[in-house]
Queue: 4 jobs
Job 1
Amino acid sequence: MENKLLTNALKNKYAVGAFNFANLEVLKAIILAAENQNSPVICQVSEGAMSFIGEDYLKNFITSARKSCKVPISFHLDHGKSLESVKKAIDVGCDSVMIDASMLSFEDNIKITKNVVEYAHKFNVSVEAELGSLAGIEEDLDVADKDSLYTNPFQAKEFVKKTKVDSLAVSIGTKHGAYKFSGNARLRFDILEKIEEQIPNTPLVLHGASGVDGQDVARLLELGVDIHGAKGVSDDILHKVSLTNICKINGDTDIRISFLIGILQNIEKNNTNIDYRKYLYNGMNEVSALVAKKMELYNSKNKADL
């Protein structure tokens, strides 16, 4: 499914939002926003999320979501580190997988990615790989600024040709986690343009693209969560990105922040309530509002029928 979603996005110049979830509530909130916006959507699980949910539970989540969702939906493994992780993701029903060997040598990255592509394509599963590496921290990922690398456009062409990968995550200046920038966000659109010139028919992916809205940070601070200095990618940059060959934009940190704000606000206002469903509903509403906003920024609203 995802390959079609991304090729449609590439053809029509919009980006599909790819949102991470680690429980049923967040998954339902993402899907609700997609249906309300009539937008295609990609729901992602990391290796950690897959372990947290449990493979059997996740398989049932995916099966149920496919039956009930009214818009095109795809499930994706985010930052798979090995062929074994890829196999697990395919077994639970993911339409696509990411193999992230970006911290290895160029040659080893090609070798590992090629093996994953050969395996996944047997099951009609699309493969995303990464070339260049993003700084920042997200779950078990921890890449120092000094170790991060921009994607080399000419290596990108060779990489795609040799691996036959379906989409490519590129490094143009974003970071994983909540603390992306110390000053104003700056992305290397000049590098992106050169990558597009070298591989014009390959859907590109942007990781580390959470917004981390300043008002949300302020609200969390008020609610007692120490998130001083958190800063993400601005809305205007994300919209600009969506009009390029970036066809998939990942979001995780701001999903977590929105869900947490919804829960904590409800507790603050209703501190005698012991019905956890009310807390969760409030968190879900915050996530749905965020995802809906992202879909408008990415220009994917009303693109479900393409």
Job 2
Amino acid sequence: MAHSHDHSHAHGAANRARLWIAIAIIGAFLLVQVVGGILSGSLALLADAGHMASDLIGLVVALVAAVVAARPATDRQTYGYRRAEVLGALVNGVILVVVAVSVAVSAVGRLLTGAEGEAHEVQGVPMLVVAVLGLLANIAAMLVLRGGAKDSINLRGAYLEVLGDLIGSAFVIVAAIVIVATGFDAADPIASIAIAVLIVPRALTLLRDVMHVLFESAPADTDVAEIREHLLGTPGVVAVHDVHVWQITSGSPVFSAHVEVEPSVFESGSTGALLDELGGCLAEHFDVAHSTFQLEPAGRAGREQPQHP
């Protein structure tokens, strides 16, 4: 368990460093993108700048959540503050949805204005230059965050924001090329709508994952029936019930169960060895480092109310 604790702290420190670097990259380029959007008259570029601003806010939220999550457990917060990472991901998901809706509304408004003969002129070359620089900035930030995105739902939210902005920059580049080559200014709001459409599914996926953690659902890759079968295969175990599997935050599964055992386990004083074996089974086969077992004599489940699987 000590190794797991140290490993978690190392991951946390590395993730905080990743967030600091990504914030510096995104923050440094945001001003350039806003100025470029104003000078070129590109809604797509300003939409991308708005998305990048949401990236920056999301990264700051993720950093604050990571710092709070690193605080040690107390008698009041017995699991510590790691759930703060989930709340940070929740805020990021909401920001993504708000940005997507705002961008779509603005783009549709500009398309309707153009259809009425009030075309909005867009400077394609400045738009293209700034979009290319934005793409490079997003690639750099994405590569920095990528290493921690698999282990932390908080960092995954930040990573998805930057990834969405990277795709958005690619759409802006395509729109700018179309405008420079053909003068078709409607490519600008069309690109904005495409950016919004791409943002929403990722935001909803992130929010779904957040809800799974907050509702204490079993992790998606956890088969409770398989875990129960493994435990029942342990010598001395008769039955397993009241099984619960949930996550404090992504990558931190917690397990508890009532385990009925043969009388000989209590008579021989081998309960400690059995608990070690059960915990080792979960850690080795299911990557569950925190498990709690209540050992009971065989037949105990029938006298418990209410009963759970």
Job 3
Amino acid sequence: MTASSPTPTAARLTLGEAEVLAATALRAQGASEAAARATARALVVAEADGQAAHGLARVPAYAAQARSGKVKGDAVPVSTRVAPGVLRVDAGLGFAYPAIDLAIAELVPLARSQGIAAAAIHRSHHFGQVGAHAERLAEAGLVALVFGNTPKAMAFYGGKRAMLGTNPLAFAAPIADAAPLVVDLALSVAARGKIVAAQKAGKAIPSDWAVDRDGQPTTDPTAALAGTLSPIGGAKGGALALMVEILGAALTAGAFGWEASSFFDAEGAPPDMGHLFIAIDPGPVAGGAFGARMATLAAAMAEEPEVRLPGSRRLAARARARSEGLTVPPALLAEIRALIA
């Protein structure tokens, strides 16, 4: 008898090590230094926040798309002020994160000067953990709303064909002497990335996540990916998904979900996605009372032990990652290192 090979163990990386690893892999496959850094930083933030579906697992697909030209790894975003409080940001069919960095940098002073400002990003790509983008605006003292559509995954409510994306949206508001309140959700019961992860792991999914081609609930991730995802809240979730499709695609002149190519492979044309950022300066809107009102709200929520501020689990995961590092599955680590080699 021969001894079996030892099972590879997961690696522990600091946040800095993970960022360097991801950026190096993306550069090796055609991304520019600036695009690789911005993208790697966003992926590691998502990983640290416990959002693995938007974290390091995206590196192989991003790299393949940069290599094939589906995403332009050297694109440089361009911002144009088209109205006193409105920016249009052209991502150049490149990675979303450099365009998002540019939009946020320009939105903060614009919202403060105008009271409210919006940035419409177009010709973009997967924009990852949407709550992290809203949080950055809230950390600058602004109230933020962020919308974006994704490639088709859900049917119009009552339909059977995948047409709309999971259509994430986020809201964030500053709280004095505390981390911002962040609401981050996709409008499907589960994100498509979680179903892909279950498929890769050979695991079943809950029966309320998706339906198969025949419209029947399924626990098989492969059947779910061939069918459609279920919206949160039934018809109300379907209506919200339609709203985000309009805000994220029609209002930015981006592709609708059924027109966009997949984020998960290197086939087809660029996804050509759109994202809408709205930033509000709460000072003039609330007559200077916003901070006190938010403090009252936070105190009221804290009075009940079972109630937590949205985003608190994310903050706990982030704190653990900073002190303990990230655990990277061995197969994923090998795949990323192979991109560098």
Job 4
Amino acid sequence: MKKLSLLLQLLLVSLFIGAQPLQRVSPASVGLDASRLANADAAILKAIQHKDIPGAVLAVVRHGKMAWLKAYGNKEIYPKQLPMTTNTVFDMASCSKSMSTAISAMILIERGQLRLLDRVNHYIPGFQDWKDAKGETIPIRIVDIMTHSSGLPPYAPVDSLKRKYGSPNRDGVIDYISHCKRDFKPETDFQYSCLNYITLQRIIETISGQNLRDFAKKNIFDVLGMTHTDYNPNSKLCELCAPTEKQPDGSVLQGVVHDPLARIMNGGISGNAGVFSSADDIAVLVAALQNGGEWNGHRILSPLGVKAMRTVPRCVASLGRTLGWDIFSPYASNNGDLLGPNTYGHTGYTGTSIVIDPDNDVAVILLTNRVHPNDAGDCIQLRSLVANAVAASIIPDMGKSKARK
């Protein structure tokens, strides 16, 4: 009995340690100029004033520490007004691809259960490869769907799928993706596609025997103590969620994924969208990636796995997409103009953005719900302005040695 009690205590201590947020420090202690960082504040406040966004949370991570964490404006303006807080939980939209689906796939690669060169139809029977006019077949592989070079269409007709298959119907979505028209020969072009990551979801689930939510929770979120990160958040977490778009009946989506494919056809657990998270939780994930896949004694990836995820594969070297992230595709403007050439990141339709610069060991997490209440907001320029302000705040050769002690 005493041994059982001791084991339970050790487990609780372990969970507590894993759930700790990053240490909050002054910008100067990690080599950032606070007066220059304040330029990011000004850009965000201007966007709020212009009604581009209702509010935002900005987190800046350097050397594994939280150097800047602020909330701005409101998280809700309809049907009532509520202020934004730093613990607000956001619909991460397509950032889910990077935070969950891609990392889950890399975990399977590290375990020897998946290869980048594996054909998709090895895991999804009936999934059609590319065929040219002469009938020549070119296989679509894992690396193609992870880098958006597969040729799959950008999205799917949700209303048509709902009529044909009913909803939610994840098998129906996969059936559509398996047989829909391919737009180009794999690895010859880039086309950002949510269908790529729904396909990757099915492969992860087939190999692991778990749905994506359970796999990501067990192998990523719980490992790092990301207690405010999940698909289909529970009622307690929903209370912290920033609402998104107003619906025809006058309600707003809150704690329910905004993306139609994810919400209507995949029941909220989808490879392209569905993760809800907070700035503190994302900061821990970023710190782990910057630390070779491990944080606070808890490892999700190997150093080589992390390196692979932030490297553009040679087969698509001109396209700018890595295995789940973006370096220099047309979608990478959130990286700004001043950060290092190896900077990688991702954005979400709802107004979320993650930017990580491994050379300068700095990350910018900008979270907005720009689709609230009428999907009329815009934060594309704002992301770049904020990234530039953070980059310009870096003071060379200061803070690094102290921060790592």
